[in-house]
Specification:
The complex is a heterodimer of chains A (about 375) and B (about 475). Chain A is α+β, with helices and mostly antiparallel strands and about 375 residues long. Helices cover about 25% and strands about 30% of the residues of chain A. Chain A is built from twelve helices and 21 strands. Chain A has a six-stranded antiparallel beta barrel. Chain A has a six-stranded antiparallel β-barrel with strand order 7-8-9-12-11-10. In chain A, strand 15 and strand 16 form a beta hairpin. The longest helix of chain A is centred in the N-terminal third of the chain and has 18 residues. Chain A is globular. Chain B has eleven helices and 23 strands. Chain B has about 475 residues and is of the alpha+beta class. The longest helix of chain B has about 55 residues. In chain B, strand 8 and strand 9 form a beta hairpin. Chain B has a seven-stranded antiparallel sheet with strand order 7-6-3-4-5-9-8, with helices on one face. A six-stranded antiparallel barrel of chain B has the order 10-11-20-23-22-21. In chain B, strands 13, 14, 15, 16, 17 and 18 form a six-stranded antiparallel sheet that branches. Classes of the chains: A alpha+beta (about 375), B alpha+beta (about 475). At the A-B interface, helix 7, strand 8, strand 19 and strand 20 of A face helix 2, strand 2, helix 4, strand 11 and helix 7 of B.
């Protein structure tokens, strides 16, 4: 059963594994999960072996090898001067400080792009197109719910070289915009590992590779780099710019693992929302059984602060705060008395409610609160409900 | 609310430009706050740089107290990939590259960036951004008026020249192609980092986008007859094309069918001018129409455009390049024309367009150098390049002039003479009016008198009728042998 194979796959990329160490040091090992005796994988599930076999139109391993053999360029010595630990630190959320660090980032990003590109697909369902990513060698594809629309219908999968193969849509969770598909043919498909979206942190560097605007044979895949801006259980916001056609495409971390699925965009270039990949693992059985549930209308979520107010109070006092929610991240505390929200004076629950309802999700707003005898202004990024 | 903040990063970048190396994040953050907040007190309080925690995570906050007593609690960091900390890491790359990014103004404001290509004052830029007489702002700060030596309308390149002997030309990257995912850096004037991105797609040809007139033709009519506009404010409507006009020529080439017209328009792009010769009420008119893009007429294209412009302003001329690499830098349209650098300070391209939310295009070094040869040859001077268009416009002007002389001026004198006749009859009409008024008064009196007589007659008739029925009653009684009393 696939869920059994996948969930061990998830636990493989344990958060305490140094993710990028071997990436700079070896040729093609970046995405190879570290060996783990507790969760043996069948031989054909080995992504390293798999990617060697099935990347037909590019030869990532060879390219890297020849680059390594060529005389050391000034750029190469810069790259070598950055320790794997420092590189990992940057990718997990730090700002690069030097040209050497930029060069080391670049070498790693190029490598991840080569490594994961074969897993990215274009999806055609009826008249519309989206993107997707293969996550198992036996043909399961993660995509966005709004790309596949309905369970159990025929679809066409195109690889970046234009080769097209039949596939079938499976389940959809419309509440979160996740969708699953499977290739109709049994083949040893190129795939990328699923990561753990719960460990994502603001500032972490990520990549999206997909087909914005649909499949274009003379263009192929389009690479974008960005950073995680905020994380919620309903969506990851990044500054990897997306547009129609990117929907369903993967968001990769710098280990080449899928951590999100492109879903929707806002009115700013830094508002790109991805479905957290963990929802796929959590609902895998239902998705695999081609269940469809939820309602797309819930995606037009109102903004959410992640706090509860004191019920028995004339003024607006925070009674509880959801850990890791927007209020928590903004530094609000239980007992804070909210007096202003995004420029609007707050006098009671109603006025706070209507002020919140005027603000979209993932918006930066200013709050003024009273804490004891202090008056404090702070900024908060609204979440999604 | 979204209108509290700019819908793009333009402002944020604007701030980082001025705080390039040092103060950085606090300023940038401050800008976010000021835009997110409408409390004047708070805004005022924020205009002081705040020391920032350089370490990670969102935990302890920096606080600062403002005059009114409100503390400003800072917990958030800016995580954007192009925050000012990241940009300053790129400054070492850009600072060591040739100082070859210049600003181009229309004499007052920036209209483009430019790329210095020779020590003696040659600068390449994006042709369609030029307006009027361009001025080049050199790295030294000098403002020099530039001559336009050549225009390549296909690649949208222009070669400008200023009198100078000591400029640093761009250093093109040659040999291998950069890899996907490689950093690319766009500098501002003065070789300051402006924005960054990565290479998204290796160089390819970008086909030219079709232009649109915004008309529908009558399929049943003989010839090419305009049946409707295909949207609001379409280029055809704005230019003065009317429903019912019959198109007989496009750019002086005869068109006889809808297919002819479609073929002729398909060769032009958004922003191009075409001259339609139309027949209307027996007259022939030449009308210049500036084509728009398909979003104007096609709902699918419109939806695409809506998405593409979420958080992005796009270049007007953004398609039709022979070899361009695609990168994900959020360029603003007026910052096209300058070089795009790699991590070694070599130019991997010349920024030529912001084409969408996720794509900016840069012409490849080999294409730019090849086109530079033609631009220097004197074969692409503005007079040569625009000769055809000038001829077309001249023809149109001639047509309009002769139409004025042959049709409109005779009509004008007819109208004038009629007007004159009427003006001369003025006193006569006054007299007639007076007469008529008298007559009307007379008639009113007569009517009134007749009404009076009529009323009197009615009364008499009524009296007679009463008497008549009294007599009839008496006759009836006599017949029954009753003597009337």
């Amino acid at each position: 059963m696939i869920a059994l194979l996948l969930l061990p796959g998830l636990s493989l990329q344990a958060q305490d594994q140094p993710p990028t160490t071997e990436a700079t040091a070896s040729d093609d090992g970046a995405g190879t999960p570290p060996a783990d005796d507790d969760t043996p994988l069948p031989a054909e599930q080995d992504p390293a072996a798999n990617s060697d076999e099935s990347s037909t139109d590019e030869t990532p391993a060879d390219e890297s090898a020849s680059a390594a053999e060529s005389p050391v360029s000034p750029l190469q010595s810069l790259i070598d001067s950055v320790s794997p630990d420092r590189l990992r630190e940057i990718f997990s959320g730090d700002d690069p400080q030097t040209v050497a660090e930029l060069a080391a980032m670049q070498a790693h990003i190029q490598k991840i792009v080569r490594q994961v590109s074969p897993s990215v697909v274009n999806i055609e369902v009826g008249p519309s197109q989206g993107s997707g990513v293969m996550v198992t060698s036996d043909g399961f594809i993660l995509t966005a719910g709004h790309v596949i629309m309905r369970p159990e219908i025929d679809a066409k999968i195109r690889f970046r070289d234009g080769a097209s193969h039949p596939a079938r849509t499976l389940g959809i969770n419309r509440d979160i915009d996740s969708g699953l598909m499977r290739m109709s043919q049994e083949e040893n498909w190129s795939y990328a590992e699923m990561g753990d979206s719960a460990t994502l942190k603001p500032g972490q560097w990520v990549l999206t590779i997909a087909h914005p605007g649909g499949f274009q044979p003379d263009r192929g895949l389009v690479v974008r780099l960005g950073r995680v801006q905020s994380v919620a259980s309903t969506g990851i916001r990044t500054d990897c710019a997306l547009v129609g056609g990117d929907s369903g495409g993967p968001l990769f971390d710098m280990d080449g693992r899928v951590v999100g699925i492109n879903s929707r965009i806002g009115d700013q270039i830094v508002k790109n929302i991805h479905v957290p990949v963990n929802t796929f693992a959590e609902t895998w059985d239902r998705l695999e059984k081609a269940e469809a549930w939820g309602n797309m209308r819930n995606l037009a979520r109102s903004s959410w602060l992640g706090l509860t107010l004191e019920a028995e109070s004339d003024v607006v006092i925070i009674a509880a705060i959801v850990p890791g929610g927007p209020a928590d991240l903004a530094g609000l505390e239980v007992g804070d008395h909210i007096i202003e929200f995004n420029g609007a004076k707050i006098t009671n629950r109603g006025s706070l409610g209507s002020a919140i309802s005027r603000v979209p999700a993932y918006e930066l707003v200013t709050l003024v609160i009273r804490r004891g005898d202090r008056q404090i202004a702070l900024e908060l990024e609204t979440g999604e409900r | 609310m979204s209108h509290h903040r700019e819908p793009s990063l333009g402002l944020v970048r604007g701030v980082t430009r001025h705080s390039e190396q040092g103060v950085s994040t606090a300023w940038q953050r401050l800008h976010w706050l000021t835009r997110a907040c409408s409390s004047a007190a708070l805004v005022a309080a924020l205009v002081a740089p705040v020391p920032l925690r350089a370490d990670d995570d969102m935990t302890p906050a920096t606080t600062e107290t403002q005059e009114s007593g409100t503390e400003v609690l800072r917990v958030r960091r800016t995580f954007e990939r192009d925050n000012s900390q990241v940009l300053s890491a790129f400054q070492a790359v850009i600072g060591s590259a040739p100082n070859c990014t210049v600003e181009i103004t229309d004499g007052q404001k920036r209209i483009a960036l430019g790329t210095v290509v020779s020590t003696d004052g040659e600068v390449l830029t994006k042709a369609s951004l030029l307006s009027g007489l361009p001025t080049i702002v050199l790295p030294s700060g000098e403002h020099l008026e530039a001559a336009i030596l050549g225009i390549d309308v296909v690649e949208d390149l222009a070669l400008l020249k200023v009198e100078h002997q000591d400029l640093q030309p761009v250093r093109w990257r040659d040999g291998d192609l950069p890899e996907l995912g490689s950093w690319v850096i766009t500098a501002d004037y003065g070789q300051q980092v402006q924005s960054i991105g990565v290479i998204s797609v290796l160089p390819r040809s970008i086909p030219k986008e079709r232009g649109a007139l915004g008309i529908r033709m009558d399929p049943d009519a003989e010839g090419v007859v305009i049946a409707a506009y295909s949207g609001d404010d379409t280029p055809a409507e704005k230019a003065g094309i009317r429903i019912g006009d019959r198109v007989i020529e496009v750019n002086d080439e005869p068109v006889e069918s809808m297919v002819d017209l479609q073929t002729a328009i398909a060769q032009a792009s958004p922003g191009d001018a075409v001259i339609l010769t139309v027949e209307r009420d027996g007259n022939t008119l030449a009308i210049q129409v500036i084509l728009a893009n398909l979003a104007l007429i096609d709902p699918n294209a419109r939806q695409r455009e809506m998405q593409e412009t979420l958080g992005a302003d796009l270049s007007i001329v953004r398609t039709g390049f022979s070899q361009a690499l695609q990168h994900d830098t959020p360029l603003s349209p007026m910052n096209c024309g300058g070089p795009l650098f790699d991590l070694q300070g070599n130019a991997v391209g010349l920024n030529i367009a912001r084409a969408g939310r996720v794509n900016s295009y840069s012409l490849t070094p080999s294409l730019v150098q090849e086109r530079l040869t033609s631009l220097r040859s004197g074969e692409l001077t503005p007079e040569t390049v625009f000769a055809e268009r000038i001829t077309r416009l001249t023809t149109a002007v001639t047509r309009l002039t002769s139409r004025i002389a042959e049709e409109l001026e005779p009509k004008l004198s007819e109208v004038d003479s009629e007007l004159k006749t009427l003006q001369e009859s003025e006193p006569m009409r006054e007299a007639a009016l007076e007469e008529a008024e008298k007559l009307l008064e007379e008639l009113r009196k007569q009517i009134s008198a007749l009404n009076d007589s009529r009323q009197e007659l009615d009364g008499r008739i009524q009296a007679i009728k009463e008497r008549q029925s009294e007599y009839e009653r008496q006759i009836e009684q006599l017949r029954r042998g009753v003597l009337p009393r």
